[in-house]
Amino acid sequence: MNLKPDCLSCLLNQSLRVAKNLNLDDETSKKMMQIASTSIGTYGEVSPPVAAADLYPKLASFTDSDDVYKELKALSTKEALKLLPSVERKVNSLSTAIKAAVAGNVIDFATPHHFDLNTEFEKVFETDFAIDDEEVFLERLQRAKSLMIIGDNVGEHVFDKLLLKTISEAYPNVKRYYAVRGRPIINDVTLLEAKELGMEEVATVVDSGVPTPGLDYDYASKEFMKLYKSMDLIIAKGMGNYECLEGVKDERIFHLFKVKCNVVSNDVGEILGSLIFMQNKV
After folding, report:
1. Would you give the end-to-end CA distance of the chain in angstroms?
2. Which helix (H) or strand (E) covers residue 168, if one does?
3. Which of 160, 261, 248, 267 is closest to 205 using CA atoms?
4. CATH superfamily to which 70-279 belongs
5. What three-state secondary structure class fits 185?
6. Reduced to 3 states, what is the DSSP secondary structure of residue 86?
């Protein structure tokens, strides 16, 4: 999916949120926004994640760290872990584990609309998927020998681990993999956060190599792509992965996310806030 006009304003708003998160003074914030504005004006026919991969290192140049949301990512994990025991009590099947994983997708600093995590978990188990290919997924899972979840945001990954744990209990012979970003980008999960959580207890954690907040094949490492192509089944978490993968025509991929922006809402044909579990179009 290529950038739409709304995406450009979203990227600019993201830049302002980064400036505020870094507590920059007015003059420095103005310089950051000028650089962001100039960069955003040059983006052509690329996906939003590819544009973000160009923009965020420029924003990070205003700080000593390449991880502009390091503290907020740690806070997201902390808050998710607080909720985990109550969520675990509600997860009694693969279907409820999938719902828990999609509820975690509300943790996202790159979208214009924000949702409360506590409220989300109060209602998610009673909410139907607007697009629901779960039956197809579960049927394919019965025959699968390997499964990869492509991670999205930190905090959300707490509930991805719960989903992988549930899958391992139901299908212990399925080889499980969890793919992360190749470097810090927005609040997406990297090897660091996955290992801190102990994701390796339920899956083999693999570095995709991508610097993009979505799995763009052009940026992925050869080693990762070799493994990726061998998978029987793939769950792509979040809108960034959807934006990169919706056009690749691979029926192994199932997108799992909450609609959090108007551009994706228009693309999938469902209203803002909808839950999506959709097999990739072929």
Report:
1. 15
2. helix 156-170
3. 160
4. Uncharacterised protein PF01937, DUF89, domain 3 (3.40.50.10880)
5. coil
6. helix
Measured distance CA(119)–CA(98) in Å, rounded: 17
Domain boundaries, the chain: 5-60, 70-279
192 token code pair? 């660091």
- Summarised one tens digit per residue, pLDDT across range 155-201 is 999 999 999 999 999 999 999 999 999 999 999 999 999 999 999 99
- The partner residues of 254 in beta bridges, in order of sequence, read 235, 279
pLDDT, tens only, 54-92: 999 999 999 888 899 999 999 999 999 999 999 999 999
Mean pLDDT confidence for 117-145: 93
Alpha helix segments (H runs only) across 91-152: 94-103, 117-123, 134-143
Please tell me the predicted confidence (pLDDT) of residue 282. Answer: 84
Cα separation, 178 vs 206, whole angstroms? 6
Q: How far is CA 176 from CA 95, 148, 168, 282, in A?
A: 18, 6, 8, 24
Q: Identify which of 144, 136, 161, 149 has the alpha carbon closest to the alpha carbon of residue 215.
A: 149
